[in-house]
Design brief:
Layout (H helix, E strand, L loop, with lengths): L8 E5 L5 H11 L7 H9 L3 E8 L3 E10 L5 E9 L8 H15 L4 E7 L3 H9 L3 E6 L9 E7 L8 E2 L13 H13 L7 H11 L13 H10 L2 E7 L13 H21 L3 E2 L5 H9 L3 E7 L1 H4 L4 E9 L3 E5 L22 E4 H7 L9 E7 L1
Parallel strand pairs: 4-5, 9-10
Antiparallel strand pairs: 1-2, 2-3, 3-4, 5-7, 6-7, 8-12, 9-15, 11-12, 11-15, 12-13, 13-14
Helix pairs in contact: 5-6, 6-7, 7-8
Protein name: Peptidase C39 family protein
GO molecular function: acyltransferase activity, transferring groups other than amino-acyl groups
InterPro entries: Acyl_CoA_acyltransferase (IPR016181), Bact_Acetyltransf (IPR050832), DUF3335 (IPR021770), GNAT_dom (IPR000182)
Length: 379
Amino acid sequence: MSTSTSAPIYIRLASLDDLKALLVLEGKSFSGDRLSRRSFRHAITSSGTALFVAMRGEVELLGYALLHLRQGTRLARLYSLAVSPEARGLGIGKLLIQACEKKAVKKGKMLLRLEVSDVNHNAIALYQKMGYKEFGHYDAYYEDQTDAIRMQKRLRHAGDEQTTRAMPWLAQGTPFTCGPASLQMVLSSMHPDYQATPNDELEIWREATTIFMTSGHGGCHPMGLALAAKKRGLLADVWLSEEGPLFVDSVRNELKKTVITRVHENFVNQCEEEKVPLHYTAMPLAQLIEAFDEGALAIILISTYRMDGKKSPHWVVMSGYDEHCILVHDPDLDDDKKLPDDPPSPLDCQFVPIARDEFEKMSRFGQSRLQATVVLKTQ
């Protein structure tokens, strides 16, 4: 049903009453990579997304824009944008994008990213006109095998420049190998001939694990990661805010406590033998940035609570910074819940901007506020 073309066009948040019209528009707009009814329903009801629709009058839906708001970060992503073929040329795409930008700013986001097909020249021109700049490329990204151009826009402090390091991104292969996957990213960046295989991911874990945690397999000790890095040709410094066995307070079983303590003491002895420097103090953020500028890369222990509500220790790699944010490569694909039928995307795990004050809170784990950083350099 259509209303008069003289009726005003306006933008509002979608409601469940829009589902039918949204599915019709999706079918008109895309031959593949379509959102399902379930995905639209999730986008309308989820606190981590905002779905805007462009309306003419009360009943004619002319377009939509779907925004993802990544919890715990300053990153937003324009996931999908569609305008009815009959309504193109009316500036609806621009209005929808502006609504997304305004929402992202209101939610404290500083950076808005998107992907667009490299053959969609009209969309690319619109994004460029609105201040979006290309910063990456993905081959055969869409179902029809066309390539995707990655673009981003600084929503605030547009004059700030980011300092980043080219780095391949790798997903952790298991729930307990974030540390090895992070180290593999660093190795791949610093030693281009290094082959980041699933077998070596597990081997690094075997070398670096604390063996036990509260439940399931243990994660990786910072000293263990440093020793594994040195074994593979890097120089490593370990910064720890406390001495003594790590994570031991997270287990109640006395045998587990004993094993964790023995593993820790063994790592200390190995670091002394291998001349891996141990600094029993938290590494200041200014010093971390200075090391990054000098060519080092750092693996940093964070708590994921502000990102997924879970109080879990998790390793990430610092991949850049600007005046307001620290950027990280996160090896965990599952920490940001997507639409029900949308597979996790590596795009949301690379150069993730986290406000500096938020990052300093994240990089303190547990009741003891443990801080652990492994700084890695080439020999």
